[in-house]
Amino acid sequence: MDEEDTRDYNEPCVQCSDVNWGLTDEGKFYCKSCHNVIERTKEVLVSDVIPNTKIQSISKGLRKRKKIDKGWEWYVCEGFQYILKKQAEALQKLGVCPRMKDEILCSFWRRYLQKSKQAYCPRPVNDTPQELVVSDSATDVDSEPERVSSFDLSSFSGSDIDVQTERSFGQISSVDKTSETMSVHSGSIDGSSYLRKRRKENVRMSMPMTLSFCYMALLWLKEPMTLSDLLRFVAEGHIPYINAFQYFPEEIKLYGLDLRIFRVESWPKYEDVHNKMLELATFLDLPRFPAITDSCFLHPDMLCIKYLMEANLPDELHSWTCRVVKKTGVGEADFLTLDAENKSARKVNYDVISVAIIIVVLKLLLLLNDQYEWVLSNFAEERNKKNKEGRLWFDFRKWYKVVKKSVDIEQKKLDEERARCLWKCEKPLFYSAKQKAVALKRRQMIQSLQRQFDALTDSPQVTEKQSPSSFQLSWDEENPDGSCFHGHSLEGFLQEKCNLHRPMNPEYWLCTVKLCNKKICGHLAHYKEGDFSKSYQFILNLFSFLLRVDVSLIHEEVCLIEHKLFSARLHKSKKKSKPKKVEIPKGPGNTG
Amino acid sequence: MIGTLRSLARNKHGLPLLVGQSRPVGPRHFRPGGVRDWFILLLPAAEGMDGFVEQPAPREEWGSLAPSIHLPLLPCLLHHPVTRGPKETEFQKTKEACLNYIQDALLQNQWQRAAEFMISYLEILETSTVSKRKTAPELLCQAIWRIGTEILLHHSKSNIEELNYFTERMKNLGVKYYLKVCLEHIFYLLCNGLIDEAYQNLTLAESWRYGEQTAAQNDELKLIQAYKGLLDYYNWSKKREAMLELDEENFTDSSEQEMHNFFRQAAVNLKEIIKIPGVWDPFVVSYVDLLEFYGDFDEAREVLTEYAYNSKFPPNPNAHAYLYHFLKRRGESKKSLVSVLKILHKTVPSHELMLEFYTMLKKSKKDKKRRLGLEVIFEVLDFAGWKENVKAWSCLAEQIKQILDNSNKHLDWVKEEWNSRKDWWPAFHFSHYLAKRNWQENEKLAYEKALLAGILLGKDCKYYKYVLHQGCKAKKKRFQTLKKFVKKHNSAYLRITACSDSSTHL
């Protein structure tokens, strides 16, 4: 083959002056003697065009393929739309209400496009990048109103999704002339301008933003999935996020600046996604979200049950968490419900607040000053030794040992899993067409090496996905070794007086006396490990592991709850008046 | 118990008392960032404190006036702590963690585990942006090559094919160390007896051309060529064996031609490598063998002399040994042989050729050379490796006997040699334990050593006494003569010790 193609080229090689030409895989000429690749390429007669391609392109509507890489003309927001669709589908597979995708998320997305003037408006911003305006008088401005009318407001779903979404952003003829020059910067049409322009009032789409969209939709539906759950599912690979671009159709080509938009090299951050969600809700001008009442999963009373179970703490603590919720007022629907307009009570991390409540309760009962809880443990241990019948008293020391052990194991497992995680997908990304060959070759190389090492390991698929679960730690009540503390009683910590159950522990310590100013400081409180007792650190770390959020985030929330709980006293003590009597009625039932 | 706890509960309310100060209160007045800023700002000034601070004049009375504070100068350019900048992505963090896991697994010989993590670590080759890379891509490739090879060498499921496959991939991956990979792979093949495959690989590697990279790896290329020469020599010597086995008539011209071809190829490459300063023992030996076979003795001598005496080459005892053997084969004069060994003796007094050296010296008529002979044989026995060498011991015994018989003419030589050894030789050579062991294991050795012990340490020496006792018990005639001999030369012992004592007192 090579001889045939190179026969006619008899120039000596520049490097070694030999006439011995061969063809590379890409059809380039190279010198067989010194491996020097030259600019000359094989001349191919393009006669064998498959007739089907033409039919396909017709069926795809008016979209024209770019000459360079035969990809479609596409907009960045279309890419995000694909990702959102995939994420919504994955969430549905996890059991989320089917309304989420087509009703909620879809309408949020449309509203976003409209608000950010990318579509559903008379003159989408996409159409007027400067390059385009300069380009040609042929830019068909007149066709724009038509496009708006052609918007198909039907749902995301359906087999004809491609056609619909394309049509809704269909750049019919206006970009043809410039597409080639622009493609140097990015695969998408507006990739380069997308990163450049930053309007203050605009909220720009980004990969974490897709999760903010999902979370917002979940919140709207009051789905029983917290943000930490959502992010955990993302990290476990149940929801597409890393390499989400691999679900794009073949014709959507990514390169250049698109990579900066769609390539993910970090896990989504809890606070980042949450803040973006709030920003988005404001931007979209959403009405008040459906109220979160005490029957909702996201209500602290409910979430506390979940986290008490997961942390292997006695069920009885729930009545105490409910009391704290009631006293601090964090269970109020007004406090919990997201309302973009009500700025004062906007930021509620349902999972973190529930965990903080549990921690405050533990501090109330056990003090957690590295002394008192161990004294109580000694009492409980002795008592449990003596009275083998009836309910066991909760023994903090034993609980610590059991939980610490399994958390350490799980943490180790998690760390290893993270290290084993594969970040790259089959479809390699490359910055420009020039790098395509290199990137593909490197990808192939890595894959073949991976296969080789994979063949060495006979363990059945290490990377196999775990089935998604809301719980990371589970404690079997039937387990005879007594590692489950759910049924243990709190009797040892309580005393009865005047028909009131109250903790025996007479003291309390505040994590901080004064909260910082969030606007100035960025945080309400600051966590420095050495400042706090070991028990407190352990409990913070335990919940930080369960929620996979930063320890300081939980600590901050604990400070906040404490200040709400003791607000009356804190203010009173300033005024040097008597502390107000706080009554806690007997029995958990009365707390409501 | 609960009562005591209850008594602790002094307040009447359900909620516990608020004790703010019982715990350290969260940092509220300062922000970590802010504090650090100041700290760093002051740091450069603190370093140059001596130069900046005006020393307050010493005051005699401290209480009279409060000393004024002299603030140090702040540096003109304030260094702000760099908190922003390209952050490490989690992709990189996880890959780093992955590398740590691999290292741990390798250290603990958990090849399976290392291979598992390797699957994930390989992705680091796809690190997206150059600026974010901590290490250069070549280093990454090298790391992967090294780790991968290590795993494949040890993993129970791995085999030669796997390693060949992996090596091919690695050659493609890193052109900057292409020849290094080739070379190591060739070593691996040679270790596994795959000579032909190794030869093929050498030929391929030799003809590898990749622009500037070929020039950059010139050293490796030379090694490749040298090893190719060595394998050519190997083939040549196989042919030679075949030829020697066959009659001359059966040995056809063609095979002789083939053999000569091998010779030519080998000679060219071997000659090249031994020009470079270094230790090239197998190459030199092979080359000399070739030259000798074809009768080019001058060239061989030149090569060996150069190898032994060129000061640019690292000191190499073998070089002298090779030269000595060559000269011996050529039947050179004793003088030249002695001069070679003399140099060798200076660098390696425990060399195995030293006995030969000694034999040559003792035959000499010159006192000076015989004196050197005594020195050589004493020095040989300073080394643990010679401790039980009967030949060395009998040489020494013979030499001393000769001196004693020769009317003690050169007894002062013995004295001088013994003087530096009398502190440690008794424990090193003549202990009671060694007497027992030598007697059990090697009677001849025990006899020679006992003779020396008797003369050098007197007849009260434990070693001498034990061996003599055992020997007499076994009614060996030899030991009777030994006893007589030692008795006869007791005076010599006294002279040796007396002399040495006086010398120590000096």
TrEMBL record, chain A:
The protein's location, in the record's own words, is: Nucleus, Nucleolus
Indicate whether Nucleus appears among the record's keywords. yes
Superkingdom in the source lineage: Eukaryota
Q: Which residues form the RRN7-type domain?
A: 8-39
Answer whether the UniProt record assigns the keyword Signal to this protein.
no
A GO term, aspect molecular function: RNA polymerase I core promoter sequence-specific DNA binding
Q: Where is this region: Disordered?
A: 572-592
Q: Where is the Rrn7/TAF1B N-terminal cyclin domain?
A: 80-249
Q: Which family does it belong to?
A: Belongs to the RRN7/TAF1B family.
According to UniProt, the name of this protein is TATA box-binding protein-associated factor RNA polymerase I subunit B
What is the protein's species of origin?
Answer: Alligator mississippiensis
From which lineage does this chain's organism come? Eukaryota, Metazoa, Chordata, Craniata, Vertebrata
